[in-house]
Design goal:
The chain has 431 residues and is an alpha+beta fold. It contains ten helices and eight strands. It has two domains: 39-253, no CATH class; 276-428, no CATH class. The longest helix is centred in the middle third of the chain and has 38 residues, at 252-289.
Length: 431
């Protein structure tokens, strides 16, 4: 009877902690209070120590200096005119918000806005939100934001974690979303014809259609809008004045990368949170049931699998929407992005673009090199590496990975062997 009672208590503990995952401020996550070590937090320490400096200019405030210090290229600029920011009153089709991004930092700016909006990826806690006042100061400070940002940036659309959101809407003439027509969260799985509503998009995509560059006149029949005439816009000159911005582009290739990247960041965070919570629960169960430390029950193994399998699929672009025609951008983004490497012994990189049938030539995400991926709990990282190997070595030819040819699998394995230094030993065997 005592053993049965213990088991029932353990089951109750498991049920409680699983439900509690909905709140990121619960232990062991403690999102709002745990220390962070994201790129912006590290940069702020350098500012405070006098080791770095932000320059203010009358036209763009701190924007250009922030981008330079955080190594974000202006070619990543994306212009969004839907009123979907906390500074939405200053946003319109005539005054779009500008977004810039690197692998681990996102910066948003609004003309005449009070602050820069910043999202920075912490290796352990995921997306951390900041604002930086757009007024000259001797000691500029990135101020962390939690509740004000997570009202929108912690929901089912962000995988239930504080995260990033790339949203496509039907915008009216003022940029207000027509919610009765529906909205779409954009990832690399999204059909092109559901992407970029409320965004400016520069570039060509052939016969494919997207929702960019359009405001909706007929709100009652928004879904019937013809997006054909605006799907291959290579210049915004006749649509909006881009003189106040760093670039005159909102590059389609940058937007494709953005859609993949922000979703994968959220999936890494989800896996991180779930596995940390699972391991906390596992130790509590072991103590209650007299099991040795480190023992994992079958149910906890299933929890790790459920947390990490969506991440494995996303890393390998499972379900990615196929491109039916070639895509071409209008800025230096593609060239600059590809040049970052790392390169294998044959000069190949996971950043090499395809842009004819899919985004990348080699279907494995470059975010496997990120601090956030490396910051996964060991149990999560071990699971992901094992599953990646099973798929790429041909042991899992299932439907989820049918898009990977034998040539794709060999190339990804070869590239990772040359460029990812912490691969498990079994990855080194020739196959």
């Amino acid at each position: 009877m005592y053993a049965i009672l213990l088991a029932l208590c353990a089951a109750g503990l498991l049920a409680f902690t699983t439900n509690a995952l909905a709140d990121s401020d619960d232990e062991p996550i403690s999102y709002s209070t745990a220390p962070v070590n994201d790129p912006v937090a590290r940069f702020q320490k350098r500012l405070d120590a006098g080791e770095a400096k932000l320059n203010f200019d009358p036209k763009h405030g701190y924007l250009e200096s922030v981008l330079k210090n955080l190594k974000i290229s202006a070619s990543s600029q994306a212009l969004v005119f839907s009123k979907t920011s906390f500074q939405r009153n200053l946003i319109s089709p005539h005054k779009p918000r500008a977004l810039y991004f690197s692998d681990d930092v996102y910066v948003g700016t609004v003309r005449d806005g009070a602050a820069l909006e910043v999202a920075s990826i912490d290796p352990r806690q995921g997306t951390i939100f900041y604002t930086l006042k757009q007024e000259e100061s001797k000691q500029p400070r990135f101020v962390r934001q939690t509740y004000d940002c997570t009202q929108c940036h912690e929901s089912g659309m962000t995988r239930g974690v504080p995260g990033l959101l790339l949203r496509s809407v039907f915008p009216d003439s003022q940029g207000l979303p027509i919610f009765t027509a529906g909205t779409f969260a954009t990832t690399d799985r999204s059909p092109l014809n559901e992407r970029w509503g409320g965004w400016y998009v520069t570039g060509s995509c052939g016969r494919q259609r997207h929702m960019g560059n359009v405001t909706i006149d007929d709100e009652k029949h928004a879904e019937q809008t013809d997006f054909g005439p605006t799907s291959n816009v290579t210049s915004l000159a006749k649509i909006v004045n881009t003189t106040p911005y760093l670039r005159d582009t909102s590059d389609i290739v940058a937007l494709l990368v953005f859609g993949h990247q922000q979703n994968l960041h959220n999936l890494i965070t989800r896996a991180n949170y779930d596995v940390r919570t699972t391991m906390r629960d596992s130790e509590a169960l072991n103590k209650a049931l007299g099991e040795p430390p480190g023992h994992r029950s079958e149910s906890n193994n299933h929890r790790i699998q459920n947390a990490c399998e969506p991440l494995v699929r996303a890393i390998l672009f499972s379900g990615e929407t196929k491109l039916s025609d070639a895509v071409k951008g209008t800025s230096e983004f593609a060239r600059e992005f590809s040049a970052q490497g790392p390169l294998d012994s044959r000069g190949r990189s996971l950043r090499d673009f395809d842009l004819t049938g899919r985004i990348f030539k080699y279907p494995c995400s470059y975010l496997i090199y990120s601090e956030q991926f490396d910051g996964l709990p060991p149990e999560a990282r071990d699971y992901v590496y094992r599953r990646l190997w099973e798929v790429l070595d041909g042991d899992d030819p299932g439907k989820a990975f049918a898009h990977l040819s034998d040539k794709d699998r060999r190339a990804v394995v070869q590239i990772l062997r040359d460029t990812k230094k912490d691969l498990p030993a079994y990855w080194k065997r020739k196959g």
